[in-house]
Amino acid sequence: MTLLLILKLIVVLLFLLFFWRRPSLTWGIGLLTVASAVLLDTFIGSFGGAALRQELGFFYFVLSGVLFGGAAIWLWGVLRPFFFTPPTPSSPQLVVVPPVVKATAADTPATPAADTPPGDAFDRKMLYEQIHTRFGRGDILNLMFDLGIAENEVMTVDQNMAQVIHNIMRLAEERGQMAALALAVERILTPPPATHLPRLEKLSVASPPTILRQFLQANYTLDDLSQMARRLNIDWEDIGGSNKPERVREFLLYLYRRNRLDELINLMQGRQSGN
Description:
Elements: H1 3-21, H2 25-47, H3 49-56, H4 58-83, H5 91-94, H6 98-107, H7 112-115, H8 124-134, H9 137-147, H10 151-154, H11 161-174, H12 178-189, H13 209-219, H14 222-231, H15 244-257, H16 261-272
């Protein structure tokens, strides 16, 4: 067994170890791609590259393209959290509209998250039950967006929603975001009206993601959003989502990933001033 073959096997074993420790679509594709590449390289070494290309013909290039695509998908999945790192909201930044919290606590006493004081003394079981029983999948994705949590940090292929919620709460606790989590849950359950959100001129790239998401959702229609996308030279059909909340979230994610959020805010503020 040559040294090169040993190195190839070590690479495959490393991918297998990562997939075993954290099974996900990204690492599954990576493992399949690396194993297939090693197998193809072995065939080339045994039969010769020219002979193998002649034998497989068109399918040789198809196989090479599939391997290249798999490697690209794996690399994007690994690097994606570094490309999308929206500002992590801290408690002082999020508590920008205390009247909303007070009004919500008075109007909806059955909402435990609204009655939970800031700090570490959260009833985690009650908070979990609120999310588990009252949140749909879209609400879960909104919660992750508000907390700056990427999907591949808490979601895998074979997980159910209960496991995803546990992962979100665990990650929020590790990051010291339990106060932000409780407030984000309360705001998703009882969204603040447009009059309780910051004025447009106060918005900036540094504004918490939850504020930007709620501002767009409260003040703009889907037609407004599609027109803004066109003015930013963005194909609205590239923005996913089947309803307005999903469209708003995906629109912001699209801009965050491309560092173009400032363009949207400038456009919004220009519209208000009549420019």
